[in-house]
Every structure is written in structure tokens, then in C-alpha cells.
Known about the structure:
By secondary structure, the chain is α+β, with helices and mostly antiparallel strands. The protein has one domain: Nuclear Transport Factor 2, Chain: A, CATH 3.10.450. It contains eight helices and five strands, in the order ααααααβββββαα. The protein has helices spanning 7-13, 48-73, 80-94, 97-105, 107-111, 114-132, 199-213, 218-226; strands at 144-152, 159-167, 173-183, 186-194, 197-198. The chain has a five-stranded antiparallel beta sheet. α2 packs antiparallel against α3. The relative contact order is 0.24. Residues 1-45 have low confidence and may be disordered.
Amino acid sequence: xxxxxxxxERVKTLxxxxxxxxSSRRAVLxxxxxxxxxxxxxxxxxxxxxxxxxxxxxxxxxQNLADDSIAAMSNGDRSYDEQVATFKTLLNENFDxxxxxxxxxxxxxxxxxxxxxxxxxxxxxxLLADRFVPLFKGASExxxxxxxxxxxxxxxxxxxxxASKIKMDGGTVGNxxxxxxxxxxxxxxxxxxxxxxxxxxxxxxxxNSVLRQNNGSVTKLVEDLQxxxx
Length: 230
């Protein structure tokens, strides 16, 4: 997406991001909320026509989300706090935050109290807002182009991988794949794979490293992440 930050600056801002994208200096985006893309195959449990419909519905969901997000977030007349509030609403409505948080924390999620789990999700939202709200400045709908959508065999829950290309400043284009699940008729994003790097897996590695250094304390991790919030 277009913005006032050049590519190198955007790379620096994304080191702690999920539910979205993580960048590298050779790629536009890297990691932006759970596994890397698997081999393309229609789940045996679903007829081919039904699988195609599911994939196209997931793609339509993502297109609507992209259009709505750019329209809401690129409005320069809104204050930063208003943009953050809007971003968090979009995040909660369209990303499977609890599932992402559970995966990112791994075994430490199971050992955390409900209060610690909620505290992590809350600071996670704030970090994402801090990293991504500035990137919407100057963005337009033409900056996001969706490609193929394919239903994958996810075992108990099939998922759809929607491919996309996102244009940044200077015309640079990043390849971003979105992992989308259907939960009781509601589509939710569970991971973003940018230039082959999974957001969820990247964050799991980063956060688990911090947890191991602090005897598995989720509270310590939350405190560390809170210091990074604007």
C-alpha cells in the first residue's frame, strides 16, 4: 500500500506484528494472524463445485475487507486515536485473534490464566494498530490485487488460501497470501504469509524466545510488549 514511509522505514516498523504482515529488506511484506502454504488440493470431503464456491466466497470476503479498510483508514481528516479505534474494530471483526494468540503463545497459552490471555490479546491488538495504522496513509483500492483462491485440506477445518499482490511506494509489489477459515458461516483470517514467511510462525518464534527467558511468564511478555505500544 502507498504511504509516507519509504520501504526501509516500513521494514523497521513491522518487527513485532501478527494477526498481519512482517517485512524484509528484499520483500515488501513478510508475515501480516498459522502454517505455511501447503500443496494445493481440494479436500476429499467436499465436492469440487462446493470447494470452488467456498474459495470464491472467501476471496469476496477479503476483497470487501480490503476495500472497507482502505476507505476507513486512509481518511486524513480523522485523528490518530479514531483511526486506531477503527483498525481495532476491523481486526476483531475479521481476524481470528484468539486462535492466532493461542498459536503464537503455544504451550504457554495453556499455562496462562484467563486474565493473562486477555491481557496478551489486548496488547497484541495495540501493537498491530501502532504498526499498521501509519501504513494506510495515501493508500488506494488499486494497491491491493487479489489472485487465486484455493481450498486446502486443513484436517478438521479446511481453509482457503487467497493470493494477493500489494503495491508499495515506488511501484514495488509484494506477494501476500491470506489463510482464511469459515467458522459457523463467518470468514476469519488466521494467518498472513508474505513472501513465504508466516506471520503466526514468525511471532511464535519471537514471543516464545522471550517467554523462555522469563520462565514462561505471560505477564512478563505482556509487560515487555506494552513498553513498545505508542
